[in-house]
Design goal:
The structure is a single chain. The longest helix has 19 residues. The chain has a three-stranded parallel beta sheet. Strands 1-4 form a two-stranded parallel sheet. α4 packs parallel to α5. It is 37% helix and 17% strand. The protein folds into two domains: 70 residues, no CATH class; 74 residues, no CATH class. With 147 residues, the protein is of the alpha/beta class.
Length: 147
């Protein structure tokens, strides 16, 4: 299944200062589906939860997740950690947080990816189901998923 990167993010501070941009959606889920994509990928930018640029990124990802579901593309969310990091900047989600994002996006199904091989898949699925009532699958290397 082809996966299309649907956004552009600026990580380099000098580039960000020159371009004036932090995050831009470059293709909508409907456009990606029309091009034959089976899924889209967007980055939810971690960092300070304040400021217009961060809020704009969160809003863009949420809008895309909802539209992806509407056109039949699955929501793909990473679920790496058994528990949130205790200190520092958040870098990854727990399975329950991934389920919470899927629930907030109001999608019908979610594909959990980037699951640590140290985590039991049944436990991961149960944690995600605590927050999300839709269909849940866990990505596996080499597997093929139909949109």
């Amino acid at each position: 299944m082809p996966v299309v990167r649907a956004d552009w993010t600026v990580i380099d501070d000098a580039w960000k200062a020159d371009s004036g941009e932090f995050h831009r959606v470059v293709v909508t889920p409907a456009e990606a589906a029309a091009m034959g994509a089976g899924a889209i990928c967007m980055y939810l930018i971690g960092g300070p939860a304040t400021g217009e640029m961060f809020a704009g990124n969160v809003a863009a990802v949420a809008k895309a997740a909802h539209e992806a579901d509407r056109v039949g593309l699955p929501l793909i969310v990473e679920a790496t950690l058994p528990r949130p990091e205790r200190t520092g900047i958040r870098g990854h989600l727990t399975p329950q947080e991934a389920g919470e994002h899927a629930q907030k996006a109001n999608v019908k199904r979610v594909l959990l990816t980037h699951v640590s091989d140290e985590l039991d898949e049944l436990w991961v699925s149960k944690c995600a189901k605590r927050a999300f009532g839709g269909q849940i699958a866990i990505a596996r290397e080499g597997a093929v998923y139909e949109a």
